């Protein structure tokens, strides 16, 4: 049975943009597993699978229903051990947790300030209202205040990515010679930025830009097909 991955989109279902969902998409391709992606609007998510989750990604694999991108990756690693490993062992799981923390607590904050208005423009009116209210509550600032910081956030992005740039001076991927789930965590963040704003806002010769292009080329360029 083909798996179903519920992900996030705006009005255009052909442009799923959630960073967390892109982690799961890349993990499934890494494992070589067949799946159907079903992008959903923000306000539709709680209506699927009997209200199993208020957020995506949400993966249905037979009788199993798994939410949260990291939990999905751990599930795939355990359920499909014969497929290429997402972590390369327990140490890789621990390292990926560090990458997740860096991505969500440093990189995501900058990208949110860059992409806020663009995301809002991608949504239907009901989802725009939800997005505005939920982000104001989560970040403790008005929508307009956050949007006003866009140019400063673009300027701040290269410095926020310096830890990744440092790593890429020694190896082509976060996972080493080949990508692992740690790559997909940070790739998901920049794919989110690319799809919502049309750019990753970095020079093409930046090591992070070159790494991102390598990730876009993975699995027959499946991620590059969404723009």
Account of the 3D structure:
- With about 230 residues, the protein is of the alpha+beta class.
- It has two domains: about 5-80, Glutaredoxin; about 90-115 and about 145-225, Glutathione S-transferase Yfyf (Class Pi), Chain A, domain 2 (Up-down Bundle).
- Helices cover about 55% and strands about 10% of the residues.
- It has ten helices and four strands.
- The chain has helices at about 20-30, 70-80, 90-120, 125-140, 145, 150-160, 160-170, 180-195, 205-215, 220, and strands at about 5-10, 35-40, 60, 65.
- Strands 2-1-3-4 form a four-stranded mixed beta sheet, covered by helices on one side.
- α1 packs parallel to α2, α1 (about 20-30) crosses α8 and α3 packs antiparallel against α6.
- The relative contact order is 0.15.
- The mean pLDDT is about 95.
- InterPro entries: Glutathione-S-Trfase_C_sf (IPR036282), Glutathione_S-Trfase_N (IPR004045), GST_UstS-like_C (IPR054416), Thioredoxin-like_sf (IPR036249).
- It comes from Peteryoungia aggregata LMG 23059.
- This is Glutathione S-transferase.
- Pfam families: GST_C_7, GST_N_3.
Q: In CATH's first tier, which class of the largest domain applies? A: Mainly Alpha
Our estimate of the beta-strand percent is: 5-15%
Named CATH architecture of the largest domain:
Up-down Bundle
Distance between the termini: 29 Å
Strand tally: 4
Write the layout of secondary structure elements.
Blueprint lengths: L2 E6 L10 H13 L3 E6 L17 E4 L2 E4 L1 H11 L10 H33 L2 H15 L3 H5 L2 H11 L1 H7 L12 H17 L9 H10 L1 H4 L6
Helix pairs in contact: 1-2, 1-8, 3-6, 3-8
């Amino acid at each position: 049975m083909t798996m179903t991955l519920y992900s996030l989109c705006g009005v255009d279902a052909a442009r799923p943009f959630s960073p967390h969902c892109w982690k799961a998409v890349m993990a499934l391709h890494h494992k070589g597993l067949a799946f159907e992606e079903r992008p959903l609007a923000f306000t539709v998510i709680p209506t699927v699978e009997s209200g199993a989750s208020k957020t995506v990604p949400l993966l249905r694999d037979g009788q199993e229903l798994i939410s949260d991108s990291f939990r999905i990756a751990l599930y795939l690693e355990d359920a499909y051990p014969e497929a290429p490993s997402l972590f390369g062992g327990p140490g890789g799981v621990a390292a990926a947790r560090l990458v997740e923390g860096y991505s969500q607590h440093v990189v995501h904050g900058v990208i949110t300030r860059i992409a806020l208005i663009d995301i809002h423009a991608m949504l239907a009116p009901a989802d725009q209202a939800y997005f505005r209210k939920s982000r104001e509550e989560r970040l403790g600032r008005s929508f307009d205040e956050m949007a006003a910081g866009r140019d400063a956030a673009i300027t701040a992005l290269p410095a926020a990515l310096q830890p990744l740039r440092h790593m890429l001076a020694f190896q082509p991927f976060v996972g080493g010679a080949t990508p692992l789930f740690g790559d997909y965590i940070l790739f998901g963040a920049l794919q989110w930025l690319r799809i919502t704003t049309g750019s990753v806002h970095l020079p093409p010769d930046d090591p992070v830009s070159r790494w991102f292009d390598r990730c876009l080329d993975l699995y027959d360029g499946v991620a590059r097909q969404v723009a």
